[in-house]
Design brief:
Elongation Factor Tu (Ef-tu), domain 3; 4 domains; elongated; six-stranded mixed beta sheet; conserved putative lor/sdh protein from methanococcus maripaludis s2 fold; OB fold (Dihydrolipoamide Acetyltransferase, E2P); six-stranded antiparallel barrel; alpha+beta
Length: about 375
């Protein structure tokens, strides 16, 4: 009798026979290998050299002292004549403004009349003195009459002197009704026309005259930078068009005192050579400050700032080693290293952004 095997039994038997083979084919997973990729960077050696600090400031072109005239009415007045327009050139002595000031003209006339009255009084006193002395010499008049005549002359002379002084003052005020140019220059602005009524206040200017050949630059320098500047220090404009020749300046004054609460102070600079800049033009200046010699310098691109800390990365044996540094004078090109890096050490100037300390690198020298 032939047996018909159960299919399920046959399948199970085949699985059990195949298990050793499956177990023999198993391979253990290899250990994970941490492969670090080297970062390509560029380096430059720290050098020893000289560096000069620079103070950058905003500034404005302005007339030098004595090179500007702002015309204001000496009293409430009407403008009778103002022949010059903005941009007109004038010569010294040319008429700028003529005011009509009724009060000053009337006062001058009144003082003129007082002087004439005082002069007549003095003339009469002198004639009376002559008569009194003649009568006294003939024994007709008493000595007291002579003394009274002498006293009258003294009083009349005093009154005449006072009248003349008052007349001079009134004439001086009246003369201010005519304003002439004290120097050759250009009319920078004009605020009124003939017939306008004006007040004697600084806010009601009539005309402004400047000498374009006597201009300077007034820079607003931050308070901590002021001690770094010296009289005679060189400077230059940095806001000139690209390709234009450098405009040289020099420091001619700095404030001797500072008002409390001020963040900046004005520093005056003179043009080394005459320059054709309009008064009131806003400019930027770089002023040379302190100079340090025989110091360690690195390119400014090597400096890494993280919060209040300053550092550089130095290439050492294929690694980027982070070095905290203390810096001194800094310019757009170089930075003085007070401590943290020695001369000759290669500092990373490109590729260090986001680089961790002790990272693997491949370094090439920056050109």
């Amino acid at each position: 009798m032939t047996l018909d095997p159960n299919p399920r039994f046959v399948f199970a038997l085949l699985v059990l026979m195949a298990l050793p083979s499956i177990a023999g084919c198993r391979r253990e997973a290899p250990d994970e290998v941490d492969i670090e990729t080297a970062v390509a960077v560029k380096t430059a050696p720290a050098t020893v050299g000289t560096i000069r600090g620079v103070v950058h400031a905003t500034a404005i072109v302005a007339p030098s002292p004595g090179a500007e005239l702002v015309v204001v009415a000496p009293d409430a007045a009407r403008i009778a004549e103002v022949p010059r327009a903005p941009g007109d050139r004038v010569r010294r002595g040319d008429l700028l403004v003529r005011f009509e000031i009724p009060s000053s003209q009337a006062d001058a006339q009144r003082q003129q009349a007082e002087v004439a009255r005082a002069q007549a009084t003095l003339d009469n006193a002198r004639r009376a003195q002559v008569r009194a002395r003649e009568l006294f010499d003939r024994g007709v008049a008493a000595r007291k009459e002579v003394e009274d005549a002498d006293r009258a002359i003294a009083d009349a002379e005093a009154a005449l002197a006072q009248g003349r002084a008052s007349l001079t003052a009134a004439q001086a005020v009246a003369s201010r009704s005519i304003v002439r140019a004290p120097f050759d220059g250009i009319v920078a602005s004009r605020q009124h026309n003939p017939g306008d009524l004006v007040e004697p206040t600084a806010s009601d200017t009539v005309l402004r005259l400047i000498d374009p050949l006597r201009l300077e630059v007034v820079a607003e320098v931050s308070l901590p930078d002021v001690p770094r500047l010296e009289i005679g220090a060189t400077a230059r404009l940095t806001s000139t068009p690209v390709g234009a020749p450098e405009v040289a300046l020099k420091v001619i004054s700095r404030p001797a005192a500072v008002e409390p609460g001020m963040a900046t102070v004005p520093v005056r600079l003179a043009f080394v050579a005459p320059a054709a800049f309009p008064s009131g033009m806003a400019v930027e200046v770089d002023i040379d400050a302190e100079q340090h010699s025989n110091v360690v310098l690195v390119p400014a691109a090597a400096i890494v700032r993280e919060g209040e800390e300053t550092a550089v990365f130095v290439a050492v044996d294929g690694k980027a080693r982070r070095r905290p540094v203390k810096i001194g004078v800094a310019t757009a090109e170089h930075v003085e290293i007070v401590s943290g890096v020695r001369a000759g050490e290669p500092v990373i100037v490109d590729g260090q952004a986001g680089l961790p300390d002790d990272a693997a690198i491949t370094a090439s020298e920056a050109k």
